[in-house]
Structure of Multifunctional fusion protein:
Amino acid sequence: MTEHRHGGHGNRQHGQRRRSGGSRNTPRLAEPPVAVLIGMPGAGKTRVGGEVAQMLGVRFTDSDEVIEHRAGMRITEYFSEYGEPKFRELESQVIADLLRTAGGIVSLGGGAPMTESVRCNLQKYISQGGKVVYLQADPQEAMERARRGGNRPMLAGDAAARWRALYEERDPVFDAVANVHVHTRGSSPQHAARKVMDMVMEHDVHVTGTSITPYDVRIGVGTSNHLAEVLGDRPVRIALIHTAPVQRHSDRARALLRQAGYEVSDVLIPDAEAGKTIEVANGIWQRLGNEGFTRSDAVVGLGGGAATDLAGFVAATWMRGIRYVNCPTSLLAMVDASTGGKTGINTPQGKNLVGSFYTPAGVLADMRTLETLPNDIFIEGLGEVAKSGFIRDPEILSILENHAQQLREFNGSTFLGSPLEDVVAELIERTVKVKAYHVSNDLREAGLREFLNYGHTLGHAIEQIEHFKWRHGNAVAVGCVFAAELSSILGYIDQDLVDYHRQLLGSLGLPISWSGGDWDSVLALMHRDKKARGNTLRFVVLEDVGHPIHLDDPPIEAVHEAFERIRSAH
């Protein structure tokens, strides 16, 4: 697995990404650019790039200006005196320097990516986490701007005809070079800049591994704009599977899909675990058959974890597997259910007992959807976040500690643009990386991936006994306390770490005790847990923060004692 960090944790309104105060003359430390803009002459690279830089509070650099400064003459004069080959050589040298030291936002001349050395340097920049943004303007708009702009030696003569010829030559190259594509047709410079900025600020986690077709988890504001890009041009029909509470977001997804030319089948399912049944799945299979879905068509799952679980299961089973994309709308779904390729439905005997391992084509965690998330549903997602901190990334726990009050007081209506936005973005990214690490090395849960089930053995039992009135993240929080108690009783950790579980989870507003079921019922359900082997109970416990282990067939007395401790809020 490789993980790419794109865009850092800058706040879009509060200028936390500031490197050089936005001034062209302010001294700055040498660092790679935040983003590099490419595009045809007249695409608006300079105007849009300047707007993006101003929004982010960083420096803007136009490579053509740097070239003219270094050459001591205008580009048209340099062309006339030395010719295009010599100009491209100078341009390549300047761009190589800018990719190492410019910082901020950089725009390149229209023909720069056609030079092989420039393309190589751009690919190296991308491999190190950079973003090359292809501004895809409407040809007629760009042609007109280029004609008016002047100082474009490549458009000498019949500017319109020359522009069209250059476009045919350059567009496929630009499309292949860029790792971000922004359509600006009909957009004002400010609107185009907002689009660019949202994409630049994304956090991307790349998931690879044995038997996994690589895919990206894209985290940020507006990542749903990538929907058509991730689905590709093969599908004709898209089944958009969603729940009623996310109608606003499904409306947007439907509009994006139709705008991209897909035929959209709108599939409304019951909310939460009520949607994860064989009856619901069967109804969808019938619709797919009646509407002529083929192996080349696709599914989009939009909603919380239950919706993305079901959508993945339908995609995995229809014609033995079709393409699907998850668009999680809750914190829990973003950090857990939508990533990793676990798909499934519930049965009366237990949760997720029927399912498959089938990875998505991509996951688009659009943080704009958190605007409509109720506080209690946001809080429950922190249960899975904290779990990931306990099993692998202690920095997650530090972030939760330092921002517990703000997280507990989450308000979707004031979330975007607030300092908390950056905190949540980092928590999502770090948690997804924890999951990606385990999934990449053990897709089918042969051993390592089971560590992701820390807190889940009791957590799933709680959900079942409570008839899913308890939300998953809340049940997992109690399950983590139970697992910590069991670890302590058996001498793997000391009581201080158990107390830390209670203190941290409690400070976030998560439950740390449960008294809703009897011991015999809980024990019976734990025996049905997916980690169980035959009649042997199997748990995930801790030796320390970041060091989970498997625990097979522990003394039943110890398990019972740990259970009693979470009942009494020990």
Observations:
- The CA atoms of residues 285 and 318 lie 7 Å apart.
- The chain has 23 helices and 16 strands.
- Residues 1-27 have pLDDT under 50 and may be disordered.
